[in-house]
Amino acid sequence: MRLFAALVPPEPVLISLANAVAPLRDLPYRWTAPEHWHVTLAFFGEVDDATRLELERRLARAAARHAPVTLALTGGGGFGSAKNARVLWTGVRGDFQPLRDLARSVTAAARRAGIELTENRYKPHLTLARLRTPTDVRPAVEALTEYASPTWTATEVELVRSHLAQGAGGRARYETIASWPLAGKV
């Protein structure tokens, strides 16, 4: 099964973001559905059942060592660049170093469970849209420049299964299969 670990913003944050993005929905992007919005901590790819059980055990331990993190969504950008992007995103601000530390612990838990991950610098974000070909997303980025969501406190890590091509319009469908509280001391 295809898995990733994520923090999911609460409904008021999702509603705020949906309102900010609504005027942009006419742009010809493959928009992600608000019910799929999340901040990825690590993407694990295909994981067999035995490895998943070990991953769950290790993720529970990792989450227990970290305190909740206070975050907000802000602005916009594009991966590779706003002028030539494959992904339109909104950024994350707040307890940035604790968030990076949490992502590092989640990645270490996956490696200890036997999952091979590529070494990438962690860039916290929430994906708003994917683009089939590199596209100039500067109009959307400019429209999101002043956006800032309400602040929220992420209190749990979710392990999410991605069912490719099983959602609306042939897109992925996400299913949370486990979650653990961020239980460390603040």
Query: Could you name the CATH homologous superfamily?
Result: Cyclic phosphodiesterase
Number of helices: 4
Q: Quote the average pLDDT.
A: 93
Compute the number of strand runs. 9
Largest sheet properties? 5 strands, antiparallel
- Count of structural domains: 1
Proportion of beta-strand residues? 35-45%
SSE pattern, N- to C-terminal? EHEEHEEHEHEEE
Helical proportion? 25-40%
> What is the fold-level CATH name, i.e. the topology?
Cyclic Phosphodiesterase, Chain: A
Give the second-level CATH assignment, the architecture. Answer: Alpha-Beta Complex
The outline comes out as globular
* CATH C-level: Alpha Beta
How large is the radius of gyration? 16 Å
Widest β-sheet, arrangement of strands: 2-6-5-4-7
* Unreliable runs: none
Helix/sheet category: alpha+beta
What is the rounded distance between the termini? 34 Å
Motif (HXTX 1): 38-41
Keywords: Hydrolase
Function: Hydrolyzes RNA 2',3'-cyclic phosphodiester to an RNA 2'-phosphomonoester.
Family: Belongs to the 2H phosphoesterase superfamily. ThpR family.
Q: Care to describe what's here?
A:
There is one protein chain. This protein is of the alpha+beta class and 186 residues long. It has helices spanning 11-21, 49-64, 96-112, 138-143, and strands at residues 2-7, 30-31, 39-46, 69-79, 85-94, 125-135, 152-154, 156-163, 173-181. The protein has one domain: Cyclic phosphodiesterase (Cyclic Phosphodiesterase, Chain: A). 27% of the residues lie in helices and 37% in strands. A five-stranded antiparallel sheet has the order 2-6-5-4-7. Strands 3-1-8-9 form a four-stranded antiparallel sheet. InterPro entries: Cyclic_Pdiesterase (IPR009097), RNA_CPDase (IPR004175). Keywords: Hydrolase.
